[in-house]
Amino acid sequence: MLKKSFVSLIMIILLTGCAASQKTSAEKEVILKKFSADRFGASSETFYNSDSTYALIVGQSKSTSLNPNPVLRFFVYDIKGEVIVIEDGFSSGRVFWKDKSHIEVTVTHGIVSAEDDDNISGYIYDVSSGTRSALKPASQR
Question: Within 10 A of 43 (CB to CB), how many other CB atoms are there?
Answer without folding.
Answer: 14
